[in-house]
Amino acid sequence: MLKRIGICLITILCATSVFAQSRRKTRSTTTQTQPGYYFTINTCNACCYDWHGSAVKLFKAAGIRAVVVFGQERKNSNTQAFSPLHSFEKFFFKDVTRDSEICAQGTLYVGPFASKDTAISALEKFPAILFSVIKNRGADDMYSEAELRNLERAKVTQNGTSNNWRFGGDSFFSINGYQIVQSSDSRKDLANKSWQAFWAKFSNAIYKKDFKTLIQLSSADAEFFDGGGGGTSQDWFNMMSSEWGLVKKAVTSGVGKIETFEGQISRSTTKHIPMIFSFEKDNKWRFSGVTGD
Fold first, then answer.
1. What is the phi/psi pair of residue 50, to 5°?
2. Distance CA 256, CA 209 (A)
3. At residue 32, does pLDDT exceed 60?
């Protein structure tokens, strides 16, 4: 134990200049990240050292994206695994003077993963990566051979159902899981920006009566609403084929402003046929059907 404490003290005194340069970051910032599931990884403050760069490279080699951001995390909720957040808010202490204190404010962000299950599955790759990080530090001076063997076989374990995982029984890696969700405002902005490109393509396909393209620009069969008959987008286009002039008039009349209801973003034509267009979960506009009678 004394050997480990000594190594920690030496490491603190020898922290790299990268951390010293980070002292300039003294204001609160918001780390914008794309939606998805993430893990954050930190070490104990007492034994902090320059491990972040090595970890980023090892995660990348394993096909997992990881970045390091300096600044203490300020979260609304960290007691439940994969608590939803709109962003990671960071703040950097203005009175930080020691390299070890700056180091302790570095957080590794791993992700995004497409789903909670994908994120949990990725944890299986963490032990080999984190063990390599510890080995790169010079673990032979900190651990006995028996402890290293146990650490090499260790897994990432969750503390009950809390938002806390750890690697190795006496390791200092702490792991938390979060879900980054888009705010309604940011989705609405994205919907606005992507509308014109979609509308131009959809309108052109209407004028050309290009059913193949129109079906590609429509919601999936299970999501499409044809007014109450249970048909698909292909069924609706086929049905309206004999009245295509009316469909053209509806599109030519244009659409109303973007509306948001219960998190759903949509627009609809204003005349002739009430055609509905929805900004779906994958952040793409689609023709989702028509309103019923």
1. -80, 80
2. 23
3. no
